[in-house]
Amino acid sequence: MMMNEAQAAIEKAQQTKAPKDVVLAFLLNSSKELVQNGAEQMVAEDATYVSLNFNSPELKQIEPWAGTSTGRQIYIDTFSNVGTYWRVDDFQVSDMIAEDSLVAVFGQFTYTSVVANNTFTSPFAIKAIVENGQITYFQFMEDTYASAASFRVGGHWVIQQDTDPSKQFNVGE
């Protein structure tokens, strides 16, 4: 994405204030290099951000942005961290649906973890609410197992989801 295209998306969103345009402008400006400007232009100061779940202290240790947070800065921090923890190999929006202030976005991305060098591809879904030309709520869902596992450098889990202990199995090494 060239900076001119990203900035043009912001300018269009500021003119139309259409929820679909606002969310698209933010997504086009969500790279590590552009997210501060994108958030300052497209995200309300007190916006809510829900990443992957509502509250999981264990996942938050792996992915610090996980859970529910408030404020524009969390958008900047989250998308900057994504660009620090992973190399963004691909990010594609396949569908955007808007009704009144609600926007749904679907697509897929491929990331490679910088330290462990593990690559994964995940579908994603976004629920966004836009009011007065700014995002006030943004919920991002992905294959959380795959994203957290991309940081795995060793170890395994013993899984038992059945009362029969013979059905126990290992995941990982």
Task: Describe, in short, the structure shown.
The protein is of the alpha+beta class. Helix content is 34%, strand content 40%. Strand 4 and strand 5 (119-131) form a beta hairpin.
Structure keywords:
alpha+beta, elongated, Nuclear Transport Factor 2, Chain: A, about 170 residues, two-stranded antiparallel sheet, 6-stranded mixed sheet
Describe the structure.
A hairpin with a 2-residue loop joins strand 3 and strand 4 (102-113). The protein has six helices and eight strands. The chain has a single domain, classed as Roll (Nuclear Transport Factor 2, Chain: A). 34% of the residues lie in helices and 40% in strands. The strands form two sheets. Strands 2-1-6-5-4-3 form a six-stranded mixed β-sheet. A two-stranded antiparallel ribbon has the order 7-8. By secondary structure, the protein is of the alpha+beta class. The chain is elongated and about 60 Å long. The protein has helices at residues 3-16, 19-28, 35-42, 57-62, 72-85, 144-149; strands spanning 43-51, 67-70, 86-99, 102-113, 119-131, 134-142, 156-159, 169-172.
Work out the helicity level.
Answer: 25-40%
The CATH topology name reads Nuclear Transport Factor 2, Chain: A
Largest sheet: 6 strands, mixed
pLDDT averaged residue by residue = 92
Termini separation: 38 Å
Protein name: Nuclear transport factor 2 family protein
InterPro entries: NTF2-like_dom_sf
